[in-house]
Amino acid sequence: MLNKLRSSASSLFAKLLLGLLVVSFGVWGIADIFRGYGSQTLAIVGGQEIDIETYRTALQNQIQQLSQQAGKPLTMADARSLGIDQRVLGQLVAQAALDRRTRQLGLALSDDAVAKSLMDNAAFKGPDGKFDRARFDEVVRQNGFTEQGFVADQRGFMLRRQLLEGLTGGVKAPPPLVEAIHRYQSESRDIQYVVIGPDAIPPIAAPDDKTLEAFYQERKAEFRTVERRSVTALPVTVSVLAPTEKVDEAAIAKRYDQERSRFTVPEKRTVERIAFPSMDEAKAAAARLAAGTSFADLAKERKLSQADISLGTVTEGQLIDQALAKAAFALPAGGTSQPVQGQFSPTIVHVAAVQPASVKPLAEVRDEVRNEIATDEARQALGDVHDAIEDARAGGATLAEIAKKHGLKLETLDNVDAQGRTPDGKTPAVPNLSQIVSAADRSDVGMDNDPIRLGDDGYVWYEVTKIDPAHDRSFAEARADVEKAWRGNEERKRLQAKADDWVKALDAGRTTLADVAKEAHGSISAAIGLTRVGNQAPDAFGPGAVTSVFAAPPNGFGSADAATAPGRVLFQVTKSTVPPLNPTAGQTQQLESALSETIQTDLATEYVLTLQNEYGVRVNPTALASVTGGGAETD
Predict the structure, then answer these.
(1) What digits encode the pLDDT tens for the residues 612-630?
(2) ∠ CA(323), CA(329), CA(330), 5° rounding?
(3) Residue 291 in 3-state DSSP?
(4) Of the four, 119, 309, 332, 549, which is 20 to 30 A from 345 by CA?
């Protein structure tokens, strides 16, 4: 709330001060730990104390504000993880340093000036645009202040603003900087490019062992194995137990009879209708129908298409207008109703066809009913099976013995990594694989593990049977991977060298991009309007390719990594456009204002850092922990 009040208090300098004061306390550091002071003192900045209650109130206000923005309550643990506790401490330390300097400089504000500022603040004005005392009192209460304390807080804010205004008020971004940033953000380039791949260079001969071993020694860590584990798992879930449940035919028939309505296909009718402006007109139409005019002819006379009159093939419940539904489902096939006062207008209803209701026979749905009963019984039996397995484990039975006794399937994972992949990169088709691998990663060989709880669906018991720690592979073990990596590295180097040669030839005019495309077995593509900021690069471009495009001279050539290694993108800048700054549209002023505000904030931040170094900052970590449950870092 206070931040909102201050952001609306006045001009750029309120924003400047707010921007400064939200800089993390961790940036500034703490000069010394806190010793020998009162237990209610949280920090001291050059002799000025910040008490625990001030910090607690500021922190709670910040947490409350962020909770409202997030749409859910934030805990103190959340606040610590997000750095809110340090940020609020940083705000108070910065304020204290600025307050001390304002006193040293003899800055002051009269009571009338403070009162006028508060009365002019839009946050305290009512619907009539005038100062609203009730609104003011409400804001004071919401921020945990007395009126006297709130006025003092606002006075301090205005004095700090006065100090920073004197420091940064005249600072503006110089025109050359504005022009440079505008050029950087707005310049666009059109290019033509060719993607070149390994087929653009001669085949690479097989390397000898000496070359590969030297390559291996330079990059030994790249060929290190990851830790792998072998795990035995016994899943006991509703879906595992259901097929083992015995369900007799009598129970299936009973469930079918009890839930026959589920297997009943309700009657459907193909319904048509013609609406009329009045009941008299509907009755006149009904008389013509009774005299032999067909419903279809009547629709044509009224210039209605089939789409206009059709309500589709529907059940009675699917018709929104209950009066029409009742009339339609009282007619025989081919029947036409008398005028009905529908929900929206007088209507005549016609039933073109009837699909009678039907019931799926038991034989057709037997397996479905049987599985439902088995699933219900499995869910009820799950607790008993869990207890039986735990008793067997307590008695020393292995998972293999338990699985055999209960007719369950034991799953095995051999040499899987932390993602559950085998050495050949495949993922075993084991249910609940991610949960098993995650739990096994925290276990060890021979450890007695609690089962993994799968919500209401069941459990998985598991044991780690083997751990193969991460280790360096010998050259002999890693030779195939070393050769693959060496070849990829050679392709990248030779492609880059080839691309560099082509760029030199293109710059010198000895070849053309079309000739390069032909020699590289590629084709020329174009990209229009590339920009440095917020632009979607072509799919063929690798990371940093757009940067390379803008590093090339206008109408020049260059190369960059392609999206697919070890390819390269060879390009020519065909057009470079920098739109001029447009003062009439406010573009210059907007950019200049944004840059000026950034420079002013940086200057103010450096000023506060200087003050803190001059005054010294000491924090009581015990007091801080009493509020946050955490602590403060100390230098």
Answers:
(1) 999 999 988 888 888 887 6
(2) 90
(3) coil
(4) 332
